[in-house]
Amino acid sequence: MKTLAFIHRNDTHFAVGDFAHVLSVFSHYELGNTISPFLLLDHIGPEQLQPMSQRKGVSDHPHRGFETVTIVYKGEIEHKDSKGSGGIIGAGDVQWMTAAAGIVHQEVFSKAFRERGGAFEMIQLWVNLPARDKLSAPGYQSLTSDQIPTIELPNGIGSVRVIAGQFNGQSGPAKTHTRINILDVKMRSGQSATFNAEAGDTALVYLVSGRLQFDKTEKMEDAGLAVMSSNESDFSVETLGDSHFLILSGEPINEPIFGRGPFIMNSYEEILQAFEDSKNGELG
Question: Is this prediction's pTM over 0.85?
Answer without folding.
Answer: yes
